[in-house]
Write a structure and sequence with these properties.
Blueprint lengths: L1 H27 L4 H30 L3 H23 L5 H21 L1 H17 L3 H8 L6 H18 L1 E3 L2 E7 L2 E3 L1 H19 L3 H20 L3 H19 L2 H21 L1 H11 L10 H13 L22 H9 L1 H24 L3 H25 L17 H47 L1
Antiparallel strand pairs: 1-2, 2-3
Length: about 450
């Protein structure tokens, strides 16, 4: 009975993901506000149905009441969280919030299937982060001129990375996390934010050549410390975001070409200096030569994706736990194996839609500072997705970068919440400004009509 229900639910889940993905891109072509709201409401109902079906499968496959107890608080969260945003900020971006909730739902489903304890911990961190970020739009609206603090942001980022360099613990060949007051956090996840704000502030406020020099020095110090920590994945994210921000701020193709050359040289040097980089490159080039050693992780990931096929094996029908640290770097492989390649492709399209929403927001920004902030955070988001999924499918060497909202890790989850809340902040402020302009235009049109009527009389 459980297997029959699982097979039926698998097909329904695929159809729901296809419908959700189609609705997202259909939403981009709708201009009127009410139509977008209705479609967003429909997409959220699809999300809730997908969430319910997945937990029903988990319960029927195992008979474990944990999945019912774990499902109920999640359902309450998904019912209340959008209502809270709507109550506090009527102009919030429903598409981004829907996608964020979908990523959370898929992440909790997969973590509950893989390791119950980590799923509970991830859910608890998400609750705290959800409450924390509710104040971010208010703070952004009240302060707004964050570019004034550009060198403070730079100092915070550099000091945070130095703290990891001095006190951080080594895991998988790199220093990435540090423990303070009993809490372990990965500083680079938050440095991404301070770095983007710092570089955007320098490039928008300092228009001469000195602005380029100052921003390059800030970026170089961040990069050097990350290289000393051997956290090359984070260094790559920051470098790529810096190159694109510099190119957009100064509109010179030379910066893109120079960035590509520097990244190639950095890759060659990293290969020669760090043994764990050579291991990952060996595993990327030919993982089958040493399947029991260096290539074990990537081969297991490829086996999982290939075994799942387009339709997937169904929850609890695969062996995703055979992939080392699957809940961190290879959550995409677990999704592909048990929920199917079609669902995985839909997930990529949903991530792409988030990136498109972010870039469209940046296009409409009048402030050069926030235009660069949007660009920097958008590039970091999409590159992070590419590196995570690319590492799982052997498109690029594994970098240890996590998939936003879905991979296990408190620091990654909190920083993802903050990034999406920042985009919501800018969208809310834009919405308020547009509403004021519409009211002023309406008043102006009404005054002109009254004047013309008076002249006719």
């Amino acid at each position: 009975m459980g297997n029959l229900f699982s097979s039926f639910a698998k097909i329904i889940s695929i159809l729901l993901m296809l419908l959700y993905s189609y609705g997202l891109f259909r939403n981009l072509s709708i201009d009127y506000r009410e139509g977008k709201k209705k479609l967003s409401g429909l997409l959220y109902k699809i999300l809730l149905l997908l969430h319910f079906i997945s937990y029903a499968v988990l319960y029927f496959q195992t008979g474990n009441l944990f999945y019912i107890y774990f499902y109920l608080p999640q359902l309450l969260y998904f019912l209340l969280y959008p209502l809270i945003w709507k109550k506090l900020y009527p102009f919030y971006n429903e598409v981004l919030l829907n996608n964020q909730c979908l990523f959370l739902a898929l992440g909790w489903i997969l973590l509950a299937r893989l390791q119950e304890a980590k799923a509970i911990k991830q859910f608890a961190v998400a609750m705290a982060a959800s409450l924390l970020v509710l104040v971010i739009p208010y703070i952004v609206d009240k302060i707004w001129d964050f570019q004034k603090f550009r060198y403070i942001f730079a100092g915070i980022g550099i000091l945070s990375l130095l703290l990891v360099l001095v006190l951080g613990s080594v895991s998988f060949g790199a220093k990435m996390s540090v423990s303070l007051f009993g809490f372990r956090f990965q500083a680079s996840e938050f440095v991404k934010l301070s770095f983007v704000f710092s570089i955007a502030g320098i490039l928008s406020e300092e228009h001469s050549r000195e602005g380029v020099i100052h921003s390059a020095c800030v970026a170089a110090v961040h990069g050097i410390i990350l290289v000393l920590c051997k956290d090359l994945g984070s260094a790559l994210l920051l470098f790529i975001s810096y190159v694109f921000m510099l190119y957009v701020a100064r509109n010179q193709i030379l910066y893109l070409l120079a960035g590509g050359l520097v990244s190639a040289l950095a890759g060659v040097l990293s290969y020669g200096l760090f043994s764990h980089v050579r291991t990952r490159v060996y595993a990327f080039i030919d993982p089958w030569r040493d399947m029991a050693g260096k290539g074990y992780q990537i081969t297991q990931s490829l086996f999982a994706i290939g075994t799942g096929g387009f339709l997937g094996l169904g929850l609890f029908q695969g062996l995703p736990n055979k992939i080392p640290i699957v809940e961190n770097d290879f959550i995409f492989s677990a999704l592909s194996e048990e929920m199917g390649g079609i669902v995985a492709i839909c997930l990529i399209l949903i991530c792409l839609s988030c990136f498109m929403q972010m870039m469209m927001m940046g296009r409409d920004m009048e402030s050069s500072f926030y235009k660069l902030v949007v660009l920097g955070l958008s590039v970091i988001y999409v590159i992070q997705v590419i590196l995570t999924i690319g590492g799982a499918i052997k498109f690029v060497p594994s970098t240890g970068v996590t998939l936003p909202f879905m991979s296990y890790g408190g620091s990654s989850l909190i920083s993802s919440f903050i990034v999406f809340a920042l985009f919501q902040s800018l969208f809310i402020i834009q919405g308020q400004e547009d509403e004021v302009e519409m009211e002023e235009d309406a008043e102006s049109a009404e005054e002109q009509e009254m004047e013309s009527e008076g002249e006719d009389a």
